[in-house]
Predict the structure.
Amino acid sequence: MAKRVGMEVAIAASEAVALCNIDMAAVYPITPQSHIAEHLSDIIADGRIDAEFVTVESEHSAISCVAGASATGARVYTATSSQGLMLMHEILPIVSAMRLPVAMGIANRAVSGPLNILNDHTDIMNQRDAGWVVLFSENGQEVVDLTIQSFKIAEHPDVRLPTCVNIDGFQLTHVVEPVEFPEQKLVNKFLPPRKPFATLHPDKPATMGTFAMSDIFPEVMKAKDEALIGAKKVVLDVFAEWKKLFGREYRPVETYMADDAEFLFVTMGSMGETAEVAVNELRKEGIAAGLVKIRLWRPFPLDEFRAAVKKAKILAVMDRAIVHGGMGGPVGVEIRSALYDEKTRPAVHDYIMGLGGRDVAVTDFVKMARASLEAFKKGVRKDYEFYGVRG
């Protein structure tokens, strides 16, 4: 029988990893990811699962360590945040190029400087082109479910790519929420033992990730790109299997009251639930508002997103990062590109908001909606703006 408990979300993430029968983990603690590392090490030290926890001296070592273990055929996990993810940057595209199914949790936090330990999405957006499958969670239950699913997606023979689950730091990692943990026997059915394509072993020497000259390098990049794009079908299949076994449904793009909406918020991560309340408030005012939530960031769910917004006149994109010197936030830039060839496309108003953990309340969402509607009515182009920033 499934167990439903109230638990800190970071701890719940570790418990979800423990259900996946991992062989090893290497995690260097960094706020606000530390509770994932600490609790997972306790689980392994207490003998609750048969796995190795490798203590390392940095995040660069952590990702290198799990990459090596994955190459031997082990099921592996790591986690990080902010500057830690930046320190992993050198290795991230190597892991995807070598087609190693590493699973990673990212407790999203602002990238320095100045130093800030609170939440935004600047850490993962700096790594968006590393060739990883990238998922965003909205609440504690999704963290548990997507963490388990991330292993199955990564290890699928048609994918074999590293997969990360983004968990908003503090706003999600450190809150206590009711979560339901699936039974171990059902997780075992959903996630059978890993069957690697090739492995490193001293008895049978092999080479992985060798030097590539220009006569083969472009082909490797093309193969990685095609694998990542093709991963969407596997993600859909895994979501469908999860619903069949556990009853909870996931989609690459989630919607709320969007069918008849002329105005749509676009969010990723934990702010989706705040935006839902704002939609309810706007509906009370007679405004046909709705919400689109992007769950699968890479590969980008182009068809699903276009279908979700096809009736809207205005999109207010909630960007928690900025492309400095560019044309707004990374999500806004992506969405404009996705809609460029559409014959009837909505106006895209990109709001840079919530940086460094700044609170964005329901009233703020309502204000942004009204401002976008007013600008649209006047025919004012509103490419992007920093919301609520003084000066």
